Amino acid sequence: MPAVRVVVAEDQALIREGLVRILSDLGFSVVGQAGDAVGLLQLAFELRPDVVIVDVQMPPDHTDDGLRAAERIRRELPGVGVLVLSQYLDEHYALDLIGEDARGVGYLLKDRIADVASLGEAVRRVADDGSALDPDVVGRMVGRKRRDSRLEELTPRERDVLGLMAEGKSNLGIAEALGVTPAAVEKHVTGIFSKLQLGHEHTEHRRVMAVLAQLRAS
Predict the structure, then answer these.
(1) Does domain 5-133 have CATH number 3.40.50.1100?
(2) What is the CATH topology of the domain spanning 139-217?
(3) Which residues carry this modification: 4-aspartylphosphate (predicted)?
(4) Is the dihedral of CA 19, 20, 26, 28 positive or negative?
(5) Which parts of the chain sit beneath pLDDT 50?
């Protein structure tokens, strides 16, 4: 099976080189590196990698150039997965990036880079057309106080399950994370869909989008 092809875009050279080393050690093929958003776009359109990994703030403007480049790649290169790394715990960045389709997209805090296994899992999930959302970002989305929100009807355990669903985890993955049985997770998922009036979705990315749609609307 060929290695997942990755382009890394990060303006801080030490972080960029560190990412390249980590990814290479994990078995990924780093086919390009960029230090700014313009370079990222050039490489993405030229190389068509499986995944691009990009920082939110990059030259030339040092604002949200990386995020805007990632959104363009999502629009114009649907076969390329996008994993954004950010130092900002901002759920709005994540929601803007995801748009109306959670497939092939990820948003992780830079602190997560130190967890090599989690980083590798996120890259593979995005490459496989899945989603990988940082649990801290998801926790903020789920935990925000909302007036007249159906989220307020959820039990603490249902909130835990909802957060893991929004990260893109399957029922089995949620069960392993919480130390419960898959049957217990299924029961909680059914309760969540019922309380949020979401209906039963069969594929993982649709479950994620159902959850995020509720988070946006609340």
Answers:
(1) no
(2) Arc Repressor Mutant, subunit A (1.10.10)
(3) 55
(4) positive
(5) 145, 147-148, 202
